[in-house]
Design goal:
Layout (H helix, E strand, L loop, with lengths): L4 H12 L11 H27 L9 H4 L1 H5 L1 H18 L10 H20 L3
Length: about 120
Amino acid sequence: MSASPETLVTAAGRLLLPQPGTPHTLAPGLRARAAAVLLRMALDQALDAYWLRVTPSMTRIGKHRMLCLEWYAGHDTARRCRTTWSALSAACHYRTSELPPAPAEIHTRLLEVTGLLSALSATNG
């Protein structure tokens, strides 16, 4: 059983802003990277749910679902999805020559994913 997109966003938020008194066993950059993975999973699940409502055959076609989103969900939503998904994908990947993502950057992406979950659930295609 997989978690809902909203549950994944909540978990990402807890990684980025742990409750006071919570022991910090991971460095902020590692928590930010883990949060980015959860946020990208949430966005992927929201896109799957959107396409399942609009046209179920699109859930089987990887990147085409992002390319076609503009014609179904509108230019702004499609642009926000592409930008956010790309930024989260970059933040998820470990590169030895780069610093991990900043928690503030991933928190901004968390807010964007939260808005996209609402936009995708409200859009009927």
